[in-house]
Amino acid sequence: MEAAPFGSAFTSRSLSPPSSSSSTSQSLLCFRFNKARLKLKSPRTFAVRAAAARGGDSVVTLLDYGAGNVRSVRNAIRHLGFDIKDVQTPEDILGANRLIFPGVGAFASAMDVLNKKGMAEALCTYIMEDRPFLGICLGLQLLFESSEENGPVRGLGIIPGVVGRFDASSGLRVPHIGWNALKVREGSEILDDIGNRHVYFVHSYRALPSNDNMDWVSSTCNYGDNFIASVGKGNVHAVQFHPEKSGDVGLTVLRRFLSPKSHVTKKPTEGNASKLAKRVIACLDVRANDKGDLVVTKGDQYDVRERTEENEVRNLGKPVDLAGQYYKDGADEVSFLNITGFRDFPLGDLPMLQVLRYTSENVFVPLTVGGGIRDFTDANGRSYSSLEVASEYFRSGADKVSIGSDAVYAAEEYLRTRVKSGKSSLEQISRVYGNQAVVVSIDPRRMYIKSPEDVEFRSTRVTNPGPNGEEYAWYQCTVNGGREGRPIGAYELAKAVEDLGAGEILLNCIDCDGQGKGFDVDLVKLISDAVSIPVIASSGAGCVEHFTEVFEKTNASAALAAGIFHRKEVPIQAVKEHLLKEGIEVRI
To answer: What is the mean pLDDT of residues 50-79?
Structure first.
């Protein structure tokens, strides 16, 4: 949807409360402003005023209400040379020179926190005075009148409109996860340096442009519908995408907001972004070697030890260094799999937490961590819930957590009882942080059969027959690093975890792992056709053509590789250049 370009000033509007009902716990504080009008400044006034405000003051006020990964926003702000002051009281909001609100999690939970702490009214006052504000993701959605997420739930009511869920009925994969293109309106200020390149989205709910809110819309994005990707009026801005996770492009957005008078020294490289890109993900299997040092390793069919007399753990580099290199090489995400046992560690001292903290300081793309997301008790007898483990990972820099064995057990119980207990790690984490923050890692093994009637699980015709000429196979799920088979198929597991709250599936294949002969396309097609959430193909990549094959023959949203990147056999950029040449959209 394209509208007329912005001028140097905007027409203000009265703010009316939403017509939908809501729980009495949601206050109507902001609707006291429903007859007020924004004291809007022209972009020129904004630049002069913000620059004067900074004059030696490099402090950014950050509204962090304690949900999800805000560390990446902090790191991005510091990376740009600014200091951070955290909001402790409503007065901190009112006293801010520039305010960033990186909202994450659920709409209702965020509004509840803002209302209980008295921050909703202060936030409305700050915004209504047209002071420098940047909302990120949920920080954009909360500006609207209400949300359908677990609702209806009232928002701050500053922008007309209702935040609704993406419609998956037509085959759209929800959550919307990945790098997508923007349609930027003229005069959008903080988006001036994007240069038609992709930015990173991860969300299940969105607001749609309308006649009532069009004067706020600064960019849109197409995913099923044209939804609002950013808003801007005067000094008030908000984005649905994550600039702190959008690489160098996202950093330009933050820089434009924090230093509106600054200009990039060279014109940004024009991109070719037109739609949601296929993602190329670098995976790092991390574990302690026999000396106790954390190293990146890689297995052959899950065996990570060298076939030598010493039988040492295969060492392919240091995790923080490799992650940083893959970010520079163009990886769309970096995924850590923690395969180190940690029964003897108190939660706060887990070695993987330090890896995340250091990595997130300089890597501005999404980070996923998996392994050990479960309840456990340390050597001191202290018990931790899976939610506590996940929360610590999020606070340390993870954007998503990947659950393996625990999700298998939860799915088995769900299929047996057809009841969602709400107690599994998968359900608890997705309820608190949103399903877009939860990946389920499936580790299946191919089991050949002569006929689909031979087993109770969903099977598929295989491209390459089995050792005895079998034309079909089902995929048995495993736990404990592939060491134990379970009575559940990959198809059944995928369907169950989607119901339980998974937002994405990481689909491995033990038979293909480390073989370099290509992804198991039969498996990936079976699962990606079965679910409406994104599927990441993993295991078996050996050359650039394997990525093209899995994207052309299946509905995979992303493809992951490890060994070929670690051993420098295939550079990430070579994969992307090949995909682009074959007509597959990627982020360059």
So the answer is: 76
Q: Which residues pair with 376 in a beta bridge?
A: 384
Burial of 385 (0-12, 13-18, 19+ CB in 10 A): middle
Q: What tokens were used for 540?
A: 């078996």
**Is the bond leading into 351 cis (omega within 30 degrees of zero)?**
no
For 397, the 3-state DSSP assignment is coil
Ordered DSSP codes for 7-55: -SS------PPPSS---TTS--GGGGGTT-------HHHHHHHHHHHHT
Phi, psi of 535, deg, nearest 5: -120, 130
Question: Is 375 noted as a catalytic residue in this protein?
Answer: no
- Provide the annotated binding site: 137, 372, 508
Distance CA 367, CA 73 (A): 13
* Token pair in block for residue 303: 């065996």
Query: Rounded to two decimals, what is the model's pTM?
Result: 0.87
DSSP state for residue 533 in the 8-state scheme: S
Cα–Cα nearest to 177, from 223, 237, 231, 239 = 223
* Cβ neighbours around 474 below 10 Å, total: 23
Q: How far is CA 209 from CA 215, 226, 324, in A?
A: 10, 8, 38
- The sign one gets for the Cα dihedral 187, 190, 192, 196 is negative
Cβ(559)–Cβ(537) below 8 Å? yes
Closest by CA position to 230, among listed 136, 365, 106: 136
- Which residue in the list 237, 242, 546, 566 is annotated as catalytic? 242
Active-site residue (options: 30, 64, 112, 137): 137
CB 375 within 8 A of CB 385: yes
- Establish whether 283 is a catalytic residue: no
Asked whether residue 201 carries a pLDDT value surpassing 90, the answer given is yes
Residue 66 tokens read as 């304690």
The yes-or-no answer on residue 492 being catalytic is no
Longest dimension (CA), the chain: 79
Q: Is 242 a catalytic residue?
A: yes
Which residues contact residue 345 at a Cβ distance below 8 angstroms, ignoring those fewer than 6 apart?
Answer: 351, 378, 379
List the binding residues for substrate.
372, 508
Within a 10 A sphere around the Cβ of 186, how many other Cβ atoms?
11
- DSSP assignment of 96-156 equals -SSEEEEE-S-HHHHHHHHHHTTHHHHHHHHHHTT--EEEEEHHHHTTEEEE-TTS-EE--
pLDDT digits (tens, 9 = 90+) for 93-135: 999 999 999 987 789 989 999 999 999 999 999 999 999 999 9
The sign of the torsion formed by the CA atoms of 96, 50, 160, 67 equals: negative
